[in-house]
From TrEMBL:
Coiled-coil ranges (or none): none
Family recorded in the similarity comment: Belongs to the NAD(P)-dependent epimerase/dehydratase family. GDP-mannose 4,6-dehydratase subfamily.
Entry's EC annotation: 4.2.1.47
Gene assigned in the entry: gmd
Protein name stated in the entry: GDP-mannose 4,6-dehydratase
């Protein structure tokens, strides 16, 4: 029987959790790398812990010896490097940390595979990003489009992209880049704009929030469903030869469109008035301003027009980039956040009642 052992960095993230589920369903032994933290909370993979074939190891992309130790112990047949400081805005605030993890961290993995003698037996997937295209030079973007990174995050990721190609050429490694365009889900972090929108729509609908503040409403993105994208990651490593692929839907929308649809899904129709920083999203039924633009959310350099061309992945990997439509994606996220807000509210009421009972001595 063929040995199938996957090692996933960033296993606690959105993509890592979906990829773990996919690989376990395909009979893999799945090993995930986690960082030690005083707050040991891993909600996205909590349902996997304790399952047969799922294992966790402590290591850090900033610590080469810990990476070598895990890779030498696990001897994986596939590595998926999904770990990163992945927030573009944060990369302006923490550029050195971003470079160490997103650039040199990739090198540490490649070197670990080489020094552990796994060059011929381990396939490596590197999670690259559409942010490489940055100040875009053509639309849509494909594998041959020139890069023009426009943030510390993108610059770090460009090093990761090229060092993968270098190790592929220099050491004949099966090392590949997946140039992922924006991919979202109900497991997306709450600081990312799409999740921020769907949570706000749910909270405003349920009376828990008054207003949503956003940055550039005209920024255009190619948004797909993360659950579909991890399937393409796996397909890239099953290919006959190592190569780099754009992972995208080929469909583009603005932040404004995303917000309009999210509020529509909770039963609120938005009307947009004004331009630029003065633009507002107004509830058609009540006339109340629900969305405003805040300069705080503008980036020093902003990428405004990302749009991927998945033709190569469709043709060579037989991957379907439109399995989940944009409209379906937004509804999945909104429905999940409506339930989350309601559950959080119910839990808060239970806590308040318990505190009252304790104060009155009803329960001890």
């Amino acid at each position: 029987m063929e040995r199938k052992v996957a090692l996933i960095t960033g296993v606690t993230g959105q993509d890592g959790s979906y990829l773990s589920e996919l690989l376990l369903s395909k009979g893999y032994d799945v090993h995930g790398i986690i960082r030690r933290s005083s707050v040991d909370f891993r909600p996205r993979i909590a349902h996997l812990e304790g399952q047969k074939g799922f294992h966790l190891h402590y290591a850090d992309l900033g610590d080469s010896m810990s990476i070598v130790g895990v890779i030498d112990k696990v001897r994986p047949t596939e590595i998926y490097n999904l770990a990163a400081q992945s927030h573009v805005q944060v990369s302006f605030d923490s550029p050195e940390f971003t470079a160490d993890v997103d650039a040199v961290g990739v090198l540490r993995i490649l070197e670990a595979v080489r020094v552990c003698g796994l060059t011929d037996s381990c396939r490596i997937y590197q999670a690259s990003t559409s942010e490489l295209y940055g100040k875009v030079e053509e639309v849509p973007q494909n594998e041959n489009t020139p890069f023009h990174p426009y943030s510390p995050y993108a610059v770090a990721k460009q090093y990761g992209f090229w060092i993968v190609k270098e190790y592929r050429d220099a050491y004949n490694m099966f090392a590949c880049n997946g140039i992922l365009f924006n991919h979202e889900s109900e497991r997306r972090g709450e600081t990312f704009v799409t999740r921020k929108i769907t949570l706000a729509a749910a909270r405003i609908k349920q009376g828990k929030q008054d207003k949503l503040f956003l940055g550039n409403l005209s920024s255009r993105r190619d948004w797909g469903y993360a659950k579909d994208y991890v399937e393409c990651m796996w397909l890239i490593l099953q290919n006959d030869k190592p190569d780099d692929f754009v992972i995208a839907t080929g469909v583009q929308h603005t932040v404004r469109e995303f917000a309009t649809l999210a509020f529509h899904d909770v039963g609120i129709e938005l009307e947009w008035k004004g331009e630029g920083a003065d633009e507002k999203g107004i509830d058609k039924a009540t006339g109340k301003v629900l969305v405003e633009v805040s300069p705080d959310f503008y980036r020093p350099t902003d990428v405004v027009n990302l749009w991927g061309d998945p033709t190569k992945a469709k043709a060579q990997l037989n991957w379907n980039p439109n399995k989940t439509s944009f409209e379906e994606l937004v509804k999945i996220m909104v429905d999940s956040d409506m339930k989350k807000v309601a559950a959080d509210d119910a839990a808060a009421k239970v806590r308040v009642n318990l505190e009252e009972y304790l104060e009155k001595g009803i329960v001890k």
